[in-house]
Every structure is written in structure tokens, then in C-alpha cells.
Amino acid sequence: GLKKKEVHVLCLGLDNSGKTTIINKLKPSNAQTQDIVPTIGFSIEKFKTSSLSFTVFDMSGQGRYRNLWEHYYKEGQAIIFVIDSSDKLRMVVAKEELDALLNHPDIKHRRMPILFFANKMDLRDAISSVKVSQLLSLENIKDKPWHICASDALKGDGLQEGVDWLQDQMQ
Ligand code: GTP
Ligand code: MG
Questions:
Q1: 25 in ligand 1 pocket by Cβ < 6 Å?
Q2: Which of 1, 37, 46, 151 could form a cystine bridge with 158, CB 3.0-4.6 A?
Q3: Does the C-beta of 120 come closer than 6 Å to ligand 1?
Q4: Active site residues per annotation
């Protein structure tokens, strides 16, 4: 058959935001795991869409591993950035990490699409994706295409919309 175009994606965001849960849900059901544990270091995962084969660097978001992220920036052609929309206390930390990412020399001047998931929308104290986007000042990102989707990674809500957008960006 036809070989799908391969793209490398970095999955970033604070610990406990739901990165691994999202990537797991994007795999075919027979390849999904039931028990998701906090990522140690990083893990390389794969999933396919109708026209692309994605290789994902699913990075740990724990503070002590965040310094690993930058070593993979050159490899990445796109970014999935996940936010726990119910974690209001750490929204400022998520913004700091995002700003550092956007200002990194290996990211700054490249056309890299960024897909944001405002995740955990099922939780009662979750804030809206519009509010997340305001708190992270996403409107200031002028040199990269970006898109934000509200998601519930447990049910899978919002994930397809996001990945469809990303696929369009990578054609
Ligand atoms: P690190 O690997 O430590 O960086 O975390 P992570 O971002 O990969 O988070 P992970 O996918 O391990 O999920 C953390 C916890 O959040 C798990 O208990 C998940 O079941 C839970 N979780 C993930 N997504 C959602 C969601 O949309 N809603 C709710 N309620 N819980 C979620
Ligand atoms: Mg993880």
C-alpha cells in the first residue's frame, strides 16, 4: 500500500495535564493501554491518521524532567501542548513553560504548528478553552499556526478535531 508521510511531534505540558492519556486515546483501540502512569523521562509513541503517520515524543512534564524537552526540539515538526484546564494554580507555570518554549532558539524562528488541548473539560472546576487561551496569551503567537481544542481525554472528546487540524497543517 501507500506509505503515509511521517511527521515527528513533541507532546509537551505540565505533569498530570493528560499528555499520555491523549496520545494513548489516539491509537487504535487494540493498541491502547488501560493503566497510564506518570511518564519517566519520555516515551516514543506512534499513531496514524488518514494521511499521516505520527511519531510522538511524549515527554514527562514533571519539573525534574522538563530540562529534557529542549533536546528534542530540533526533531519536532509540530507541537501538541496540553493544559489541565482545572489546574488554575499552575496555569502561570504552564505559561512560563510555554513562553520558554516559544523563545527557544530551536523553536523561535521555525514554522511549527502548535495544537493546544485545554484538557479535563469534564471536571467541574475546569475553565473554558477561551479562558485558557487568554491566560496563556495565545493571541501573541503570531509566527506559528496554532489552534486550541477543549478536550476530555478520558472520553476522547475533542481529540479528533485537534488531530484533524494538525493533519491539515502538516500536508
Ligand atoms: P506526566 O507524564 O507526568 O507528564 O503526565 P501526563 O501529562 O502524561 O498525564 P497523564 O496522561 O498521565 O494523566 C494524568 C492523570 O489525569 C491521569 O490520572 C489521567 O487519567 C487523568 N486525566 C487525563 N485526561 C483527563 C481528562 O480529560 N479528564 C479527567 N477527569 N482526567 C484526565
Ligand atoms: Mg505522561
A1: no
A2: 151
A3: yes
A4: 62
Give the count of alpha carbons within 13 A of 79, CB side only: 27
**Residue 156 Cα to ligand 2 middle (Å):** 16
Domains of the chain: 5-170 (3.40.50.300)
Report the nearest-CA residue for atom 14 of ligand 1. Answer: 16
Asked if 132 contacts 85 with a C-beta cutoff of 8 angstroms, the reply is yes
Q: Select from 21, 34, 90, 149 the residue to mutate for testing ligand 1; criterion: most ligand atoms less than 8 Å from CB.
A: 21
pLDDT bin (cut points 50, 70, 90) of residue 1 is low
Q: What is the pLDDT of residues 26-66, one digit of tens each?
A: 999 999 999 999 999 999 999 999 999 999 999 999 999 99
- Residues 78-90: what's their mean pLDDT? 98
CA distances from 102 to 66, 74, 114, 118, 130 (A): 14, 13, 10, 18, 20
- Any ligand 1 atom below 6 A from CB of 52: no
